[in-house]
Design goal:
By secondary structure, this protein is α/β, with parallel strands linked by helices. It has 5 domains: about 190 residues, no CATH class; about 190 residues, von Willebrand factor, type A domain (Rossmann fold); about 100 residues, Immunoglobulin-like (Sandwich), CATH 2.60.40.10; about 230 residues, Class I glutamine amidotransferase (GATase) domain (Rossmann fold), CATH 3.40.50; about 60 residues. About 35% of the residues lie in helices and about 25% in strands. Strands 18-17-19-20-26-25-24-22 form an 8-stranded mixed sheet, with helices on both faces. Strand 25 and strand 26 form a beta hairpin. Helix 9 packs across helix 15. The relative contact order is 0.10.
Length: about 800
């Protein structure tokens, strides 16, 4: 046990005062003017004995009261340990108390059955109560007290490294959570600013020769110990929030590693000292300053971190909680354009997802803005949405069109403000480009007309709205065609092909082309599709067409990119309609045996769940096989499906053709929205020599990038600031490509870790939590100098003084009565 004010222990000398008063003021016996009766003499002797005992008890209480006051002012502390009762100890204590009460009740009932005289009954009851009380106390000491003291003794024998005085230097690492959630503003101060202030003030209280390292979760830089405290303060002041983040679990492991390396270096420098006698001259600490948001940690925790903390018991971990207990926030968590590419005369639909945390908002304003050629933001639409706390709300903006530039930068924004502003805006980029040409091959144009119309449904003035420019050729002209100019080739009801044609198509797919094969005719010769040359890249082996029946479609994987439009229109019943046999029906289809490496994307509802849409990758391209028809013969008996029928909603078949062509052509793989810290691949024109570009940042900074000769991809790894980016040709200043960067949507979730979560991640009793500078000081005193028992002694002082007061009043009252 140690004392923070050890000089006050001299006050224990005042414990002699009650003893002196006891002997000096000892009450003299009084003579009673009563007859010398034996009974009264005996009573007098008993009264004198009781009086002496009460004198002694009163003196003892006064001594204990004065001693408790002195000890309390001296602020004693005990070694760091877990002084709380464990669950098993609490359970044992409760069982023993219950057993004592139940036993006393049972024995008291049996005693009442004996019908003893009242005096004897009270005497037996008192004896029974005393015996059970003593027995219960002995049992508690034996079964609770003994294990408790053995556990504390074990902790005292293997203590953590602690400070023996305030002058022992500290080697500490201050690790800051600088995620975007730390920009939460309240009372004019962000969570990060609050953390920086606590760190700055605490640094000024450290003993001389202390060393401090500073780290943050926004990067993986090493955490070297600064040469001076002032250098650490300057490093702390320079920390800002960052969208790119490394989990705090990983950064904590790095901090532990830095401590371990520094300790090894110090011990190895003590060459003149025996290795077993070498000691670390620093008290080691890690300060983690965080708002305890779950998003800053690994979702499942880290067993490696838990093992490191259990191994490095000499490092004290302090969590400084600068977050808010009940945070509130409104955020745009996603913004989705209807397509990454739109034709010059086309329309763009933009949807957003908004989320509220902590508050229910009946009418939250959300607006859509787009940049013009001058870079000015113009409002394109505004709506209101009801936000119920914890439930995302989907927001649809009106269609916009009339685009005059090749690259469109837009953003969805919340109106109004809240404590966390970084997630009130979300950015997107869309390319405006002419519709790509796609090749459609069929025995005759009438067979492919329905598919061609679905790819280009608009004519004349509205032709600019078409997303594809289909080009029809008879399949007989296949050997004469250069397929590489088309991103996708579609074969519709092609009866047969020779090996040369199959080889031509195989090379096209291998080099990155997309091939769609639609088998919807009884005239198809299955043996042609079964040729070895064709089976190198076809998704399956055609067996035979299924006889007439009534079947429907069943989508195997709705998250697959081929169903992207259906997924976007799911709220309008896209999948429900496609899979409803009463609306979309199939009467015939080709039975197919999938090839190795083939993925079945949709099936029929027949007994065998026969494949309907199959995909197989070959080289850099892919082949898609659709095993029923996409045309409508004039004879209704020859129709295989009503999917392209005008009697159904037109958008169902149009979307089907568009998303299958878009996926096969890999046009949808061009991405223009990224998350902070994500690796960004940009498509650039191929050139024989090395090429330089300028990357324009949201703050109008420009950085130089170089693409090696012959490359068509430029990779960027260090983009973290949210906003719009443009890749410029330094000669012409024209935009080569563009993209947008958004913060991780998880940062908007301010759900906090509980103590139970921290126990699972860091280990119970392996860390201390503080929410202010004063609490941090108390936690450090408890861990380094021992646990103060000031509150306990203060309670004992109150108990002793109250006891002394009661005993003294009762004693003097009785003495006065006796004198009378």
């Amino acid at each position: 046990m140690t004392f923070l004010n050890s000089a006050l222990l001299l006050g224990l000398g005042f414990l002699a005062v009650p003893v002196i008063l006891h002997f000096l003021l000892k009450q003299k016996p009084k003579k009673l003017l009563f007859p010398a009766l034996r009974l009264l003499q005996q009573k007098q002797q008993r009264s004198v004995r009781k009086l002496r005992f009460r004198h002694f008890a009163l003196m003892l209480l006064r001594i204990l009261a004065l001693g408790a006051v002195v000890l309390t002012l001296a602020r004693p502390s005990v070694p760091p340990a877990n002084y709380n009762l464990t669950f098993s100890e609490v359970l044992t204590l409760g069982l023993l108390v219950v057993a004592g009460i139940v036993g006393y009740t049972i024995l008291l009932r049996k005693l009442s059955e004996k019908k003893l005289p009242p005096f004897q009954h009270r005497q037996q009851q008192s004896r029974l109560r005393n015996l059970l009380t003593v027995g219960s106390l002995v049992a508690i000491l034996l079964f609770v007290g003994w294990p408790y003291q053995r556990r504390l003794s074990a902790e005292f024998k293997q203590p953590r490294q602690t400070a023996t005085s305030h002058s022992l230097p500290v080697a500490g690492i201050m690790l800051f959570d600088n995620s975007l959630s730390m920009s939460y503003l309240e009372a004019g101060e962000t969570s990060l600013q609050r953390a920086q202030e606590i760190a700055r003030v605490h640094l000024q209280t450290l003993p001389t020769e202390s060393r401090m390292a500073v780290g943050e979760s926004g990067n993986d830089r090493p955490m070297p110990f600064q040469t001076t405290i002032s250098a650490a303060q300057r490093r702390i002041e320079s920390i800002e929030t960052s969208a790119a983040q490394i989990p705090l679990d990983d950064r904590l492991r790095e901090a532990i590693k830095s401590h371990d390396e520094d300790r090894r270096r110090i011990l190895s420098s003590q060459e003149s000292v025996d290795e077993a006698s070498r000691k670390d001259r620093f008290v080691r600490r890690i300060y983690l300053l965080t708002d305890l948001s779950k998003s800053a940690w690994r979702p499942a925790g880290s067993s490696l971190l838990l093992a490191d903390l259990q191994k490095e018991q000499g490092i004290n971990l302090y969590l400084i909680d600068v977050g808010r207990t009940h945070p509130r926030n409104q955020a745009i968590t996603a913004v989705t354009p209807s397509s990454e590419r739109v034709p010059p005369g086309g329309e763009l639909l933009v949807s957003a997802t908004a989320l509220s945390q902590g508050d229910d908002l009946p009418a939250q304003g959300v607006e859509l803005l787009m940049e013009n050629r001058q870079g000015e933001l113009l409002k394109q639409g505004q709506t209101t949405a009801r936000l119920d706390s914890g439930f995302p709300a989907e927001i649809q903006f009106p269609a916009i069109g009339g685009f005059s530039q090749r690259w469109l930068h837009g953003e969805s924004r919340l109106t109004g403000t809240d404590p966390l502003t970084f997630d009130n805006t979300r950015y997107f980029t869309v390319q405006v480009t002419d519709p790509p040409q796609v090749l459609v091959l069929a025995p005759e144009k009438s067979v492919a007309q329905t598919w061609i119309t679905a790819l280009a449904p608009h004519e004349r003035i509205q032709a600019a709205l078409n997303k594809f420019a289909p080009h029809f050729e008879s399949v007989s002209r296949l050997p004469e065609l250069s397929l590489n100019v088309f991103p996708v080739v579609t074969l519709i009801n092609v009866t047969r092909l020779n090996d040369a044609a199959w080889s031509q198509l195989g090379r096209y797919v291998e080099q990155g082309g997309g091939l769609i094969i639609i088998a919807g005719s009884t005239e198809i010769q299955a043996e042609s599709y079964q040729r070895a040359t064709a089976q190198q890249f076809l998704p399956g082996l055609l067996d035979a067409w299924h006889p007439i029946g009534e079947f429907g479609f069943a989508v195997t994987n709705r998250r697959h990119p081929l169903f992207s439009i259906y997924r976007r229109l799911e709220n309008y019943g896209s999948f429900s309609m496609f899979e409803n046999e009463n609306q979309v029906s199939v009467s015939r289809f080709w039975k197919v045996t999938p090839a190795e490496g083939t993925t079945v994307l949709a099936t029929y509802t027949d007994q065998d769940r026969s494949p309907a849409i199959l995909e197989r990758r070959h080289g850099q391209g892919r082949t898609i096989l659709f095993t029923t028809a996409v045309n409508l013969p004039e004879n209704p008996n020859e129709r295989w499906t009503n999917l392209p029928s005008p009697l159904l909603d037109a958008w169902l078949f149009l979307s089907f053709a568009e998303q299958m062509t878009d996926y096969a052509a890999r046009l949808g793989e061009e991405q223009y929205q990224f998350v902070s810290g994500q690796t960004i691949p940009l498509a650039v024109p191929r050139q024989s020599g090395e090429r330089t570009f300028l990357l324009k940042h949201p703050d109008l900074r420009q950085t130089k990038l170089t693409a090696p000769a012959g490359d068509t991809r430029l990779t960027i790894n260090d983009v973290a600031v949210p906003g719009h980016y443009s890749l410029l040709d330094p000669t012409t200043r024209e935009t080569v490509t563009a993209f947008s960067v958004n913060p991780p949507s998880e940062e908007s979730d301010l759900t906090r870790l509980t103590v139970e979560d921290l126990n699972d991640r860091l280990g119970a009793d392996r860390f201390q939590i503080a929410q202010s500078l004063e609490e941090l000081k108390d936690r450090i005193n408890a861990a380094d100098l021992g646990q103060e028992i000031f509150p306990l002694l203060l309670v004992l002082v109150i108990v002793f003084f109250c006891g002394e007061h009661l005993v003294a009043n009762r004693f003097y009252d009785q003495s006065h009565d006796s004198a009378v």
